[in-house]
Design goal:
Strand content: under 5%
Shape: rod-shaped
Distance between the termini: 44 Å
Helix content: 55-70%
Length: 40
C-alpha cells in the first residue's frame, strides 16, 4: 500500500472522511492555540 492515495481515491468516502477529520483537528488546534496565546 502506498501512503499517498491516488487521485481516483479522492472521491471515496474514506478519503472524504479523513479530509473532514483533518480539517476539524486543524481548526480545533488553531483555536486552542489562539486561546492559550491570549492567556499567556
Amino acid at each position: 500500500m502506498s501512503t499517498l492515495p491516488s487521485t481516483g481515491d479522492a472521491s471515496s468516502p474514506a478519503a472524504i472522511f479523513l479530509l473532514l477529520l483533518l480539517s476539524a483537528v486543524m481548526g480545533t488546534a488553531s483555536h486552542v492555540y489562539r486561546k492559550k496565546s491570549k492567556q499567556a
